[in-house]
Specification:
two-stranded antiparallel ribbon
Length: about 200
């Protein structure tokens, strides 16, 4: 067997089964040829080195992106830049109870104010008419009739004018609805502000 064939087969030597003819021929040749024996020893050392490094690197090193390291350093130096969901403040039980009571009070005020505004509770039930009597400055009818001439009143019809009835007009602003909405909005804004500043 020629040395050139043996050197070509050395790359596939360890993949061949032990009863393969080529592997047995390589074994016989390296026992007789000194240069091929040295080449075989180099291949053997390389194989052991590769297997040793492969076994040593079984622990996979997790890749940490550079951007995560940069952002964590920025957040450590300037905590106010941190996004709100990642730094939410954990409210104590007492504060949560008090804030829940304030929100419940505001919602109750809103509901009652809304119901009263819809139902018209407290409004004047007497209907208002389209024509109102003229107010007189003086109640003394004799003095008024003596000072003025009686003029004939021109009318187009002898019937009484048609009176249009209108429902009660609410002129009182709904303070409870406005105050409850302001309180509810203020409570939500304060909770948001506390979650940002106390983290």
């Amino acid at each position: 067997m020629k040395c050139q064939h043996v050197q070509e087969w050395l790359g596939a030597y360890w993949d061949l089964p032990e009863d393969d003819d080529r592997r047995q021929a390589v074994d016989q040749h390296i026992e007789q040829c000194e240069s091929c024996r040295e080449e075989f020893d180099i291949w053997m050392e390389s194989l052991e080195l590769i297997r040793g490094t492969a076994q040593g690197n079984e622990e996979r090193v997790e890749y940490v992106p550079v951007s995560n390291q940069v952002m964590s350093r920025i957040y450590a130096d300037e905590s106010w830049r941190m996004p709100v969901p990642s730094k939410l403040y954990a409210f104590s039980y007492k504060m949560r109870r008090n804030l829940a009571a304030v929100v419940a009070l505001c919602m109750t005020l809103f509901i009652f104010g809304f119901v009263f505004a819809i139902a018209g509770v407290g409004a004047d039930k007497t209907p208002k008419y389209g024509l109102k009597p003229v107010a007189s400055v003086s109640t003394d009818l004799n003095s008024i009739s003596n000072k003025t001439k009686s003029l004939p009143v021109a009318t187009a019809s002898l019937k009484d004018p048609y009176m249009v009835t209108m429902g009660p007009i609410r002129s009182v602003p709904d303070y409870m609805i406005v105050i409850s909405l302001l309180g509810f909005t203020g409570t939500i804004l304060i909770m948001n502000w506390l979650s940002r500043t106390k983290a």
